[in-house]
Every structure is written in structure tokens, then in C-alpha cells.
UniProtKB/TrEMBL annotation:
This is Agmatine deiminase family protein. It comes from Marilutibacter aestuarii. InterPro entries: Peptidyl-Arg-deiminase_porph. Keywords: Hydrolase. One of its GO terms (molecular function) is agmatine deiminase activity. Transmembrane segments: none annotated. It comes from the Bacteria. One of its GO terms (biological process) is putrescine biosynthetic process. SUPFAM superfamilies: Pentein.
């Protein structure tokens, strides 16, 4: 289909399903499988209140087990679809398809997934989009392989031609390319009119090199929700304050300041001597709701209030995500939305 007819939809646009992969003993979750399974059950239960979910499973035994766990939790199984596909781990935001919508179908952008710059084995994750295509999961679509390392968590779009990303992550993946070249390539592949770069912002315990979906997210074409830090003694304070100033200086496509929604700061979560990345910015937008990562912290309620103001037409649903941050990600990281009409 012609390039001009393709568009990168925002996450708040209608969805057919959310794609996830079930954790099992051969993934990095094996040491803490019980806790993370509870999070996945809560996630599927929350999603199926509003729409369908597609669950990747490694084999028939894992499907039977996942089906039994979900059924016993009284999940609406009519909205759960299983698909057998190999994967190294369950971070589908980064290994799943980045989908462009056209007037008569979809283009699945299949970027290289390198395990966040070669940190982890990722060959099966890198092949996942092709595997799902071969299984005929998608309808009215074509897959475009792109020999360029890019993860879905590294980018966020307003659905109207503006992309938000971080220089730290993209420069780490492509140190030989300057900002103009990187921005040009992203704009071309993702059908964007402009790319907004953040030079500040990070979270200890994050091994993605500052994915934007842990830091700042569009809530509307004129609104951005971001992770703030109000503790001047915290190691993140100065960097996140600098990011907040960057966001305040950004302008919408028609020249107006963005409406900004700062998220509260959770108390440090220390596990086996290391700090974990507990970001409220890693929320998931679905049809009619925003699923919010909850960490069992007193800031959870305040974060829900901020998201309710940013998304006044959606229900805010907390999902317990403390088990996820042990492996350096959270709610948005383990999911990928599939636009309405994409499922076969």
C-alpha cells in the first residue's frame, strides 16, 4: 500500500486484543514463577473485562496449565485465545509487532530485536512476529522486515504524526548514527511528521537504556503523562527534574505547550541488594480503561488519581506488578496492543 496511506495509530485507538506471552520455567521467570503468574492472571482478568487477549504459549502443556489457572480465577475464557509459538522471554512490547494501519489493512513492522543491545539471548523473540504471521494470527496484513534494532517500548506516538523517544536508548543501539539520521529513519518507517527527543530521564534497575515507556507517555495529542520524583535526596531527582523541564519546553504540532501530568514517586524497592524500576508511567491503555501498574506502595492511589485526570473517559484499573520489576520491566513492557481489525 502507498506510504502516504499508512498511519501509526495511538494506543488509545480501538483495539482487537492485547498480545502477551505466558511465563514458564524455561524463561527468566523460573526463580519466581508463582508470583509472576499471579500478576499475569490479574492482567488477563483485567483485560478480558473490556476486550480480548491473545496468549502465546510455548507448548500444549503450558497452554493447558495457563487455561486451568485462568479458568480457576473465573476469567472470561471466551475472550482468551491461545497461540503456540516459541519465545525466549515475555517482554512482547519489544518483540511484538509495531502495527501501521492503512485504509484496507495493516503493515506489521518487524524490526530487529537484539535483547536490548545484546544483553540477553533473543533469537526466538526476534523471530516472533514472523512466527505469528505464519500461524495466521493476523488478517489483512503484510509484514515488513526492517534490519534495524528498535523496541516498541522505546517509542510512543500520539497517532497524529508525532513520535516521542529518548536519545539515550536510540544512541545506545545505533552509536554510529547522529540524531538527524535516526530521526529521519524513524519518521520514514513509522510514518511520523516529527520526532521529539528526550535527553534526560532514567530509572535504576532498568536495562533497556531508558525506554520512553518507563518515563513519559502521550495521553492525548496535546497531553503527556510522565514519571516525576519529588524526593530531593533520591538519586533520580535531578535527572527526572531535567526531563520535566524538557517536557515543559516541548510544543504540540500546532505550537501549544503540552498538558502535563506528573506521576508520583514510589518508595525505593530494593531486592537482593539492587534497586528495581517501579515506574507508574508503564501503564497500558485498552478499550475503555487504563491498566495501572501497582506496587503495593502508598503512592499507588495518587498515581491512579493522576491517570484518572489524564484519561477522564476511561476506568483506571490497578494491576499488581511488583513481581514484574524483579526482571526490570512492568505492565506495558509485557504487552502489545493489536489494533481493531488486525486479528484473523
Amino acid at each position: 500500500m502507498p506510504r502516504t496511506e499508512l498511519r501509526f495509530p495511538a494506543e488509545w485507538e480501538p483495539q482487537s486484543a492485547v498480545l502477551i506471552a505466558w511465563p514458564h520455567a524455561d524463561t527468566d521467570w523460573s526463580a519466581r514463577l508463582d508470583g509472576v503468574e499471579d500478576t499475569y492472571i490479574a492482567l488477563v482478568a483485567a483485560i478480558t473485562r473490556f476486550q480480548s487477549v491473545v496468549v502465546c504459549v510455548a507448548d500444549a502443556d503450558i497452554e493447558a496449565y495457563a487455561r486451568a489457572r485462568l479458568s480457576s480465577a473465573r476469567v472470561d475464557m471466551d475472550r482468551v485465545r491461545f497461540v503456540e509459538a516459541g519465545y525466549d522471554d515475555t517482554w512482547l512490547r519489544d518483540s511484538g509487532p509495531i502495527t501501521l494501519r492503512g485504509p484496507d489493512g495493516f503493515r506489521l513492522l518487524d524490526f530487529r530485536f537484539t535483547g536490548w543491545g545484546g544483553k540477553f539471548e533473543a533469537s526466538r523473540d526476534d523471530a516472533l512476529v514472523g512466527t505469528l504471521e505464519d500461524l495466521r494470527l493476523f488478517a489483512n496484513s503484510e509484514r515488513q522486515e526492517i534490519d534495524f534494532a528498535l523496541e516498541g517500548g522505546a517509542i510512543d506516538t500520539d497517532g497524529a504524526g508525532t513520535l516521542l523517544t529518548t536519545w539515550t536508548c536510540l544512541h545506545e543501539r545505533h552509536p554510529d548514527l547522529d540524531r538527524d539520521t535516526l530521526g529521519e529513519r524513524l519518521a520514514t518507517w513509522l510514518r511520523q511528521d516529527r520526532v521529539l527527543w528526550l535527553d534526560h530521564g532514567y530509572l535504576e534497575g532498568d536495562d533497556t537504556d531508558a525506554h520512553v515507556d518507563t518515563l513519559a507517555r502521550f495521553a492525548a495529542p496535546d497531553a503527556i503523562v510522565y514519571q516525576a520524583c519529588d524526593d530531593p535526596d533520591d538519586s533520580h531527582h535531578d535527572e527526572l527534574a531535567a526531563m520535566a523541564r524538557e517536557l515543559a519546553a516541548l510544543r504540540t504540532a500546532d505550537g501549544r505547550p503540552y498538558r502535563l501530568f506528573p506521576l508520583p514517586w514510589a518508595r525505593p524497592v530494593i531486592d537482593e541488594g539492587r534497586r528495581l524500576a517501579a515506574s507508574y508511567a508503564n501503564f497500558l491503555i485498552i478499550n475503555g480503561a487504563v491498566l495501572m501498574p501497582a506496587y503495593g506502595d502508598k503512592a499507588d492511589a495518587a498515581a491512579a488519581d493522576v491517570l484518572a485526570r489524564a484519561f477522564p473517559d476511561r476506568e483506571i484499573v490497578p494491576v499488581p506488578c511488583r513481581p514484574l520489576i524483579w526482571q526490570n520491566g512492568s505492565l506495558h513492557c509485557i504487552t502489545m496492543q493489536l489494533p481493531a481489525g488486525l486479528l484473523g
